[in-house]
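no rush on this but wanted to send it before i forget. theres a chain ive been looking at and ive put its sequence and its fold in token form underneath. please have a look and point out which stretches look like helix strand or loop to you. thanks a lot i owe you, the record is right below:
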Amino acid sequence: MDCKWVRLYIERWLKAPVQLEDGSLIHGEKGTPQGGVVSPLLANLFLHYAFDKWMQRQYPQIPFERYADDGVCHCQSRSHAEGLRAALDRRFAECGLELNSQKTRVVYCKDDKRIQDYPEQKFDFLSYTFRPRRAKSRNGSFFVSFSPAVSNEAIKSIRSTIRQWRFTWRTDKSLEDLSHMFNPVIRGWINYYGSFYKSALYSTFQHFDHILAWWASRKYKRLKGRNRRACQWVRRISKHQPWLFAHWQLLQSAAGR
């Protein structure tokens, strides 16, 4: 396709208004429309040339990762990182963009080998929080590692989703029905957020089990008003049928260590 037509199509997308549910139109003055289906595509195309290719040409020695408009660059020193940030400010200004001053930070990746102190020692990326954490080596000794685990924002999102299920009122459903409804989502959370430091998920899944006990106390007369007995019922089922919910297998494997 001719570049002239490519530019024309992109320009039309950028100028296209966004229609709300009530039928009203919002005309954007600059940038891609928030929530627009084409916005991630246009942002990726633009940043591929404005950032990715530029970094490969100007700073081939600096590894980096980028997902949509979030990125992480790995520098060897603070002065190196501050120099790169200044260069990025200039580069983005040339492209008609600007860095987010609150999100763009120089972070010190503190661990057992990097023992100095700096104000910034953690950052979030792809719903993970990277920060110094206590880890255990293969020989059983403990050390400090700069590692990722599920972020607080992701935990809040998971708990919000669980609340939205409102299954404590679904007493018409069986435990197997709830498993079919929610287990695929729970398994997805474990597969993604459980890649590093699964223990950060334990309290959230224990919270899910408490809600499950509340559901059981509403469904079964013998458990009504007996929260402790309902919690024991959930624990007993989780031991005999751990395949019903993916997090039951996770919690049991952790308890068996």
